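Handout for the seminar on molecular recognition.
Each group receives one record of this type.
Step one: identify the two inputs.
Step two: read the structure output and locate the region that could contact S-adenosylmethionine.
Step three: write two sentences on what you found, then compare them with the reference statements printed after the record.
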Amino acid sequence: MQLQITDVAFGGKGVARANGKAVFVPYVIDEETISASITREHKKFLEADLENIVTASPHRIEPRCPYFGRCGGCVYQHIDYEHQLALKWRQVKETLRRIGGLKEPPMRPFIPSPIEYEYRNRITVHVRDGVVGFFRRESNKLLDIERCPIALNEVNAQLVELRESRPRDGHYTLRAGAAQRVFTQANDAVAAAMLDLVDSLLGSATGTLIDAYCGAGFFSKRLRGRFEKVIGIDWDQHAIAVAREDTNENETYIVADVEAELGARLRSIISPSREGQSAVVVDPPATGLGKMILETLIEQQPTQLIYVSCNPATLARDLARLKNSFSIDSITPLDMFPQTAEIECVAHLKMKTVCDDGERTKVR
Ligand SMILES: C[S@@+](CC[C@H](N)C(=O)[O-])C[C@H]1O[C@@H](n2cnc3c(N)ncnc32)[C@H](O)[C@@H]1O
């Protein structure tokens, strides 16, 4: 059937309508006219595969990777970079509206990646029955990969070595340089931009900083010079050991579940006798913040909250819960993973206050 693509949804699939239902088609671009064949029929929507492009978008370009379309990693190599950013920006805004109930999300411009390919400082490849590679698109079968063009050359050199070593079945994370064996941000340039952003959003904040889901202290190491006290919490003891390798007197790192630890830590720094500025950075996994953590933040209300998210849908869900107790100052998307569907966001929230005679009164 012939379809008119009207949008590209979060995840990378183009959206059209047919027979009164939404149709999702991968590897197309908004405003393209295509012919497609239906591959699956669901109650509320259809899935289709691209057959032919009838009218191509001016944003369509040649993908650089020979595996594109088969590999489960990249979804946007056929779209020029400017338009990738425009689409992702719209996806974040729409998600915040739809799931977060934010009528006019305070979106800032995208922070792009200065490098569109060869940016990943680590990749995880899988080995099964002699095949070394990534999972195929929407499949648990492996695709044999000789080179990944979004990874740094150094990482690809390690891939060559791994392939030559005839590795056993398993998962192998290949990292550039002497990178630590704990969570690290995957795109160095965008990670640096993210630190600058968080630092500038916090303005002149001092007092105590809680870095929840701190990993090896990515945010706290940058911010420790300006806060009186920095407390990092992560349940990965290896990451905490790395964070503890280089600490100033004002830094404490705790191996704990954020769910169990955040409340007590916040209570101790925001007790009425210790009124002062407090900032919390949360950088949770894609599942977002648990109910208890949201309740703790609403109950204890730090002065500022920075929410670093790798999943706009869970960010939107959590902001829907936080928006009555905090004002949402800004949401900045960052392109940590060009060519892929991934979107990183930094949301800046401030405690809602009624300021009379300089006293801070929490709005509940
Ligand atoms: C997205 S990473 C962020 C790490 C760090 N902020 C950084 O930028 O390098 C998420 C971190 O959360 C930790 N984590 C996940 N769930 C947790 C939990 N319930 N309690 C404590 N740490 C958790 C993981 O160990 C991981 O280090």
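Reference statements: The pocket of S-adenosylmethionine is lined by residues 183-185, 213-215, 218-219, 234-236, 239, 257-259, 283, 285 (CB under 6 Å). The chain has eight helices and 19 strands.
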